[in-house]
Structure formats: structure tokens, C-alpha cells
Specification:
Blueprint (H helix, E strand, L loop, with lengths): L5 E7 L5 E10 L2 E11 L2 H11 L6 H24 L10 E12 L6 E5 L2 H8 L3 E3 L2 H6 L9 H8 L5 E6 L2 E7 L8 E7 L2 H11 L8 H4 L5 H8 L19 H8 L7 H23 L5 E5 L6 H11 L3 E4 L10 H14 L7 H4 L9 E3 L3
Parallel strand pairs: 1-4, 4-6, 7-10, 10-11
Antiparallel strand pairs: 1-2, 2-3, 4-5, 6-12, 7-8, 8-9
């Protein structure tokens, strides 16, 4: 396989659970997952990242420390993956590193987004050219900087019937792929994915996530609480739009629970699961007309309770894993950033203005050359 065909994508999402590494080969425009590696964060490091994500924390020393530490973690994850394969670093054309988002403020007088994980260190430690800082160029031309994966979804998942690609990470986002080129691709963050459910079970049971949605399945949905959650102004905003932990977090939830006291923790968890499903289903119905199939990727695909609720709310449409389309649901986002790195090196735009609200298409990412 020619060395120019191989790229590596790195992804650490809003769930802040670890690093996804996807070794991706391109045959023409079609990507193929060659190998993958997941490297979880140690509990202490995850706590540091989450503390930095807290809007009340503005410690620049801690920011700089984590930028370097995450750069090392990303580089080590790449080298671990390569050690598990017969591929050498000389064969990799580039790494596309999303970085770790610690703040996303795409609106206001000075919109910005910030991802850390020093790409200089990644390039130096791995000996591989690294492309990073993808989101800020889109914001520079008036976009939200997110979501960026719809352009990749358009390349990989286009079909002959109306299809939505749904990524359920900490935040959920959708891409609507129309069957005619006369209609633009639509994509936006629908609201919470796993983040609230993860935070709630961690508070009450010390677990990082609700395995398979089993705890949520023991509870009962609380309709008045669900209605209040769905009444948040974010859901009535038209796309383009994006969100993150800055808005949907446990402090936000606690504020709502003060007016809905006394519920069992498992009932709140069941309601949060229904909240994710209902907000996604509402977004699909309102903005993705005629959708016949929803392909799901990201960690939420493993939450059987959530998938069941999605299937019920989106019936008679089909809800299935992206695996049915030949792409492992756990690696779609990391592969997308391998693809975006490839676009950058080829001088091709990586954003979709109809999705992010940018004024124009632009090449995304800074290129950090190998030594």
C-alpha cells in the first residue's frame, strides 16, 4: 500500500473518556479502517480535563500543563497503535488530531473554540506530520466551528434514500444526506448525547457510563421533568447551531431539579435517556424531511435502552448502527479527522457552510511538519 494512502485520525470527544486512534487508508475518496486503538484516560487526568472544562476555571497554568500532557498522550496513543501493526511512522502521510475541546463559545461578540493537545509535540514525538486546530478557521469565516463531521459523512454514507447519520458522543449531532445534489447537506448538534447520563451515574454510582443503559431501564420517565428539559431555548433555535458542556452539564440539570425534587436517581436517569432520544427525534422530524434511515455511531450506539427509545420515536424509519453501512461506529469520528487531515494536505476545504453557517468553504487545520 502506498504511503500516501495512509492517514491517522485522533479523536477525544466531549465524554472525555479517552483517545480514539484510527489508521485509515484511502482508495480514491473511499476510506478504509486498517487498524484502531482506544486509549482510556486515567481517572486523575480525566478529572483535570473536566475541571478545566468547568466554565468557572480559567487557570492558564493548568491549561498549559494539560495542553502539553495531552499532546504527549495523543503521541503515545499513535505510537501504541503503530506498535500493534506492521506499519511504520514513515508510511503515514499525516495525523489529523481533533484535540480535546475545553471550551466552545461559537456565539457572542468574540466567538471562539479551544482544543488542546499540543500538535507540535505530536509531530515531534511521532515523526509524523500533524494537522490540528480544525475548528477555529471555520469560526474565522463566521461559522460555528462544529459539527465538522458532516462533510465526511457526505463522502462515506451518501445513499439512494434519505438518510441521517447520528453521532451520539457526549453531545449528539446529526447529518442529513438528501438524495439530490440540489438540496444541501444539513448538520448540527441536537443537544445532549451521553454527557448528562454519564455525569448522573458517576455522581450516584461512581461509574463512568450507564453500561447498555441498564440503570436507565430500571427507572421510569418523569414526564414533567422531561417537558422542562425539552423546553430549553437551545432546542427552538434554528440551525446552524452547536453546543457542548458549557450549556448542558450537571449544574444546568441541578438547577432544573430544584423545581422537580424528590425523584429516585434511576428515574432521573431514565428521563435523561428519554431526553436524549426525544431531542434527537425532534431534530430529525423538524429538519430532515422524509428520512427513512438513521445510522448511529459514537458511544451511544452501545446504549440499548437509548437505541430502543430512538427506534420507537423515529418509527417507521430504520435506526441502525453505521456497521450496517460497513463502517465501525466506534471509529467514525477519528476516521473523519484522518480525512480532514488529508483534505488539508491537498488544499481542499473541509467545512460545509450550510452546516456550520460559515460564509465560505475553507481549508481547515494548521499543518505541523515532521522533523
Amino acid at each position: 500500500m502506498a504511503s500516501s494512502d495512509l492517514y491517522i485520525g485522533l479523536m477525544s470527544g466531549t465524554s472525555v473518556d479517552g483517545i480514539d486512534v484510527a489508521l485509515t487508508a484511502f482508495e480514491g475518496e473511499r476510506p478504509h479502517l486498517v487498524a484502531s486503538h482506544y486509549q482510556p484516560y486515567a481517572a486523575g487526568l480525566r478529572d483535570e480535563i473536566l475541571a478545566l472544562c468547568n466554565a468557572s476555571n480559567s487557570g492558564l497554568d493548568q491549561l498549559g500543563h494539560l495542553d502539553v500532557e495531552l499532546g504527549r498522550q495523543f503521541a503515545n496513543a499513535v505510537m501504541t497503535l503503530l506498535a500493534q501493526t506492521s506499519v511504520t511512522h514513515e508510511q503515514i502521510r499525516a495525523i489529523g488530531s481533533h484535540g480535546q475541546t475545553v471550551r466552545h463559545r461559537p456565539t457572542g461578540s468574540h466567538p471562539f473554540t479551544l482544543q488542546i493537545g499540543d500538535p507540535n509535540l505530536i509531530a515531534e514525538m511521532t515523526g509524523i506530520t500533524t494537522v490540528a486546530d480544525f475548528r477555529r478557521r471555520d469560526i474565522a469565516v463566521g461559522g460555528e466551528g462544529a459539527p465538522l463531521v458532516p462533510a465526511f459523512h457526505q463522502t462515506v454514507f451518501v445513499a439512494h434514500r434519505p438518510r441521517v447519520v447520528l453521532n451520539i458522543g457526549g453531545i449528539a449531532n446529526i447529518t442529513w444526506l438528501p438524495t439530490t445534489s440540489s438540496r444541501p447537506v444539513i448538520g448540527f448538534d441536537t443537544g445532549p448525547g451521553n454527557a448528562l447520563m454519564d455525569g448522573w451515574i458517576h455522581r450516584h454510582q461512581g461509574q463512568g457510563h450507564d453500561q447498555g443503559g441498564q440503570w436507565a431501564a430500571t427507572g421510569a420517565v418523569v414526564p414533567p421533568l422531561l417537558d422542562t428539559l425539552l423546553a430549553d431555548a437551545y432546542f427552538s433555535r434554528p440551525p446552524p447551531k452547536s453546543t457542548g458542556r458549557e450549556q448542558f452539564n450537571l449544574s444546568w440539570l441541578d438547577g432544573i431539579l430544584t423545581s422537580h425534587p424528590g425523584h429516585r436517581p434511576e428515574d432521573v436517569q431514565a428521563t435523561l435517556c428519554e431526553f436524549t432520544a426525544a431531542s434527537i427525534a425532534s431534530a430529525v422530524r423538524c429538519h430532515c424531511p422524509g428520512t427513512e434511515e438513521v445510522l448511529v455511531c459514537g458511544g451511544g450506539v452501545h446504549n440499548a435502552t437509548l437505541m430502543t427509545r430512538l427506534a420507537s420515536q423515529l418509527a417507521p424509519g430504520v435506526v441502525a448502527s453505521t456497521a450496517t453501512a460497513g463502517v465501525d461506529p466506534d471509529w467514525v469520528e477519528a476516521m473523519a479527522f484522518a480525512w480532514l487531515a488529508r483534505c488539508a494536505l491537498q488544499g481542499l476545504p473541509g467545512n460545509l457552510p450550510a452546516v456550520t453557517g460559515a460564509r465560505k468553504k475553507v481549508v481547515l487545520g494548521g499543518i505541523y511538519q515532521k522533523s
